[in-house]
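Forum: Protein Structure Q&A
Topic: Joint prediction for protein chains with partners

I've read a bunch of threads here and the consensus seems to be that you should model interacting components together rather than docking separate models afterwards. I'd like to see that in practice. Below is the full input, 1118 residues plus whatever partners are listed. Could one of the regulars post the assembled result?
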Amino acid sequence: MSKKNNQDKLLVFALGGVGEIGKNMYVVQYNDDIVVVDAGLKFPEEDMLGIDIVIPDVGYLVENKDKVRGIIITHGHEDHIGGLSYVLKSLNVPVYATKLTLGLIDVKLKEAGILGDTKRILISADSEIQLGTITASFFKTNHSIPDSVGVCLDTPEGTIVHTGDFKFDHTPVNDQFADLQRIAAIGSKGVLALLSDSTNAERPGYTPSESNVGNELEDIFRKSTQRVVVATFASNVHRIQQVINASIATRRKIAVVGRSMVNVVTIASELGYLNIPEGMIIEPEEVNRMTADRVVILCTGSQGEPMSALTRMARSTHRKVDILPGDTVIIAATPIPGNERYVGRTVDELFRLGAHVIYGPGSVSGVHVSGHGSQEELKLMLNLVKPKYFIPIHGEYRMLRLHAGLGEEVGIAPENIFVLDNGDTVEFQGGQAARGPKVQAGRVLIDGLGVGDVGNIVLRDRKLLSQDGILVVVVTLSKADGTILSGPDIISRGFVYVRESEGLLDEANRIVTSTLTKLMNDKVNEWASLKTNVKDSLGRFLYEQTRRRPMILPIIMEV
Amino acid sequence: MSKKNNQDKLLVFALGGVGEIGKNMYVVQYNDDIVVVDAGLKFPEEDMLGIDIVIPDVGYLVENKDKVRGIIITHGHEDHIGGLSYVLKSLNVPVYATKLTLGLIDVKLKEAGILGDTKRILISADSEIQLGTITASFFKTNHSIPDSVGVCLDTPEGTIVHTGDFKFDHTPVNDQFADLQRIAAIGSKGVLALLSDSTNAERPGYTPSESNVGNELEDIFRKSTQRVVVATFASNVHRIQQVINASIATRRKIAVVGRSMVNVVTIASELGYLNIPEGMIIEPEEVNRMTADRVVILCTGSQGEPMSALTRMARSTHRKVDILPGDTVIIAATPIPGNERYVGRTVDELFRLGAHVIYGPGSVSGVHVSGHGSQEELKLMLNLVKPKYFIPIHGEYRMLRLHAGLGEEVGIAPENIFVLDNGDTVEFQGGQAARGPKVQAGRVLIDGLGVGDVGNIVLRDRKLLSQDGILVVVVTLSKADGTILSGPDIISRGFVYVRESEGLLDEANRIVTSTLTKLMNDKVNEWASLKTNVKDSLGRFLYEQTRRRPMILPIIMEV
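Posted by a regular:
Agreed with the consensus. Here's the joint model:
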């Protein structure tokens, strides 16, 4: 450990991922050395109309570009890697990740055209890397994607542990155990602060083992006398392995359907994360030639996504695979909040085709378990690491608070627990922690190629337009004497069905004309007041008639 | 029973409420006598932008106006009464309902200005009413609102039983038991067809009793050393009674907050559905003067509705009531699908204020139970009624199918079970049932004062506008020679933040000008092709630059 002086300071904060689910990004800074953990995206909330994805504002990192030693990625889920290609464009620093994670990152960097320009460094759970004065080491965790790790950052001020996403699975698939011994060893050396996953802090008890799902799948495969279709997250490689295992046990072959499922199966088997016996995989085209009870179809679409394989099959619009009456369809996932209706519709369609559908919460269906630890596992992590300070991360505010409560239960002093918002900092000096000044943090909205060009004004307009549509009022005035040369013309979109509302629009036209004529007579001719008057009188009329408030856009041309 | 001949026919169908949740409306027709059961609304789905509510298309009933003998309402929930005031405007027929239900209906009819014009007939569970050749009688059920009934319709062709919404609660609040004896008696006389509630057909087992909630509430009230806030559905009168009971037991007074909660407490206690001891209710203004552990605040907002009492308290914008650190807030409801995020945000805000919040699914929180029966209760209803034919109602297609499966399990022949879509009919003749011709059915969208004037075209435009906004392109041409006199001007809304995109919009302007100039030179001057060309060239340019597809609205003025 290097020598310390009074100015030395350790700073810990989040740029994303506290008070929200997604766009995870955590920062540990010791003096002039900054280490970033994760660079995720988040899917838009329902009021972010037209937005594709949301990433963290990395203004602080860009300002301190020269200090950033690297970005460590804990695992390959979108909420941890999805912002990376955007961040790297303004911040070209090395990226550290384990094998499968790096494989998934490479796909993204390639798409963004920056694979060649990015320094990517492969780590394993046994690596130790030096990032300026900070030493990073790792520990294996259990999660719904292989190769996930937690991060241990040794700084001259003390050790910071970041769990990544985790659960404790005592009977994991492919014997990929969480490294309890290493976590305990880290704890026994003394940990200054723990940053721990709060995603399931609302759930009492333990999250069941992934291998429970395997047993259930095999049962269903065996009982089904026809084809079995399994939809799950493409990234859930262990789940896919269990579909393979259950297929082997029940002498079925597997057709893989859906672009991201094909991609992951390819990458994961190339990198050795999937054991697929020779001859196990068949082409989707072969499905119809096989005996029904010898076939499994593994596909995307567990969230009812409109363009996904399962949704197309359910609507009988898939080019290669039909659902036949008597087929069993297993949806091995829980709907992400907001997707419930999509999943519901897909299930409805499947029932209409005569399929037997197994769906619903994992506790009912038996074919899904969460990848995040429940309350007892969160306490276990706290007790293994035995930190002096505790910062719950990964979660909405209520989850962070509940996790903080668990911290108190296991004996951490309430004043040593920090529930943060993005940009809130905790400063560590001489073994003591206190809240520091806030740093720049926020959200950047991505819409098409636009990064951050859609802000509150644009969103407010989209919201208005979505509710009651728009009326455009155009009129051409004479430059010479201000008289109306053409119009007013009223064009509406999204307001009323025009053919059935001619009377209303004619009357609206008369109101605009008389408003303008009156203003002309009163010698009012500034455009601003003409426009305001048209807006007001027309808006009032339409509200009286329809109780709607469309956007009104007056346009004055002058000739 | 009147004599039958070969032409006599009994018809059963739904105009709303099968293959969907909400806008319930069921029709039983024997020759020239039509009886309607329920007239509900449904809240808009996420793709129905700007729509307030959805009601059934009653075209069939309006066409057969002279045959409609009346509308029977099973209970006072919006999905059963909310469409009534719209339906009655085109179909002025008598309405039959029990006391509390009629009280809630009256509020709606008054708002719609048709209370005086509507024949409203009070029934009790013991009433028997003659509707042409059809005799209606009733039976008490358990549900999350008092005074709910099932309907028994005796026709010359046989008896049709409609359960309404129901559960079986063996320890109901205020001793309001479901009438097992009467249901059994109806069954023993022989029932032609049962229409039964499928809302919870996905849930195994039994739905817990409402009185479980009462015990839990009393525990929480007793343990809390400060104020307790309880948010629940205003219509859940039994839940409200239990809040009152728990308050009495723990020597707390109750302040009622939120317009609909105040309304329901007033109506329900006037009509005798709530027992509130003298002096129990205090004004919201008094809350701050009372000792904290002597107060309960009963309020609306259990769905996180933006303008509701609880949401305002959570945001510290309520005029009368603040949440103080240490207060206990109980959200005694499960979020309706689509409301999860609103509820989550409210809970977050409450945690930020330092409140202790009890929320989540009833199985975790203990302070909520469903009002609908689970699978075992659905089987019990089937076995009590012992129908020859079975038509599952109230539910998405998958729920109807699962309920049909339960019907098969208890011994109903699969060919005697009809899973319908709205408008599908079942014809009964000589004790035999078969599918009949489809009748007109569908949805009518209400937007402000507009009933049905927003259709697919308007919705599609709103969707487009909400995604990428709109660009209006205006140009004034000379009538004489077709030259550009003014413009092109481009005005955008909801597309990009204009101040930061001047370059893009300038370039867009140049593209429109050059497109128009080229067309002029080529002597193309039909407006249609001018518009199409502007749309295409501008659309292409914007997509290349931004990967967005705003609506483009070209407007040509001529002077």
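DSSP finds 16 helices and 26 strands in chain A.
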